[in-house]
Write a structure and sequence with these properties.
- This protein is mainly beta and 288 residues long.
- It has a single domain, classed as monomeric porin ompg (Porin).
- The two termini are 36 Å apart.
- The protein has a 15-stranded antiparallel β-sheet that branches.
- β3 and β4 form a beta hairpin.
- The chain contains two helices and 15 strands.
- Helices cover 15% and strands 53% of the residues.
Amino acid sequence: MNVKTILLTSLSALATTLSYGREEDKDAADAALEKKADGAAVGSAPAGEHDPSDLAKQSQNPIANLISLPFQNNFNFGSAEGGDLQWTLNVQPVIPVELNDDWLLINRAIIPITQNPTSLGGEGGLGDIQYQGFLSPQTGSDFTWGIGPVLGFPAATDSTLGARRWTAGPAFVGLLTKGPWVVGATVNHQWDWGGSGDSDVNLTFIQPFVNDNMANGWYLTSDPAMSINWEADTGDKWTVPLGAGIGKVGKIGKQHVNVKALAFYNVAKPDLGPDWSARLQITLLFPK
């Protein structure tokens, strides 16, 4: 399957999911009218159900007590000299563990699968795998935070798909949830300490995020993934994308899902970096 086919398939999946969301909104509205006619309260989710807007806020919180399985499709346009398309699917399972009544340990893996354009060698396969662990207090306040390690494992099946180095470093996330807003940032830094790759790793990752939640699980979002490669030449150190998108939390059958689509333009990038990118993420949610 080539990258163009993957893009068309992903967009088809987005349209299908949003169509389910519209039908679900209509069904919810019809159910609310029936309850009102029966004298029931309107505006709260039925017993045993999860309110889409509340679930959207949970899914936007990287350290929420919520099991999830994101499939993040990244389409990079204008990569390398040929201006070709690069596709990366990040599979990112998130499993929180309640250590006690006061603390959570959020475990997240990032497993990248990449198809490079011919101008970058044309290789496809698995990239280096990353683990993030956040220790976070369960305070119940509007502001929450988490801190822990980020570890990299040299799993790349080709030298063009990853550094093939063991890496480690600190990671931090902080966020504020207030009204319809979920605002925060994730920051980590990695150094290499071994492996078969030839390139040293000295990399800072910064991802601010802003979410404005609306009715029925819809939201506006921006979460540009910035990086600083301290080993690169002066003009190639920074990658700074700017952009935004839209998302919706709903259900397909009985499965809770969060679907979002965003586009970014790189205002700063390495010489061989993409000019702009698009992201389509479909996340399976497993609320308690």
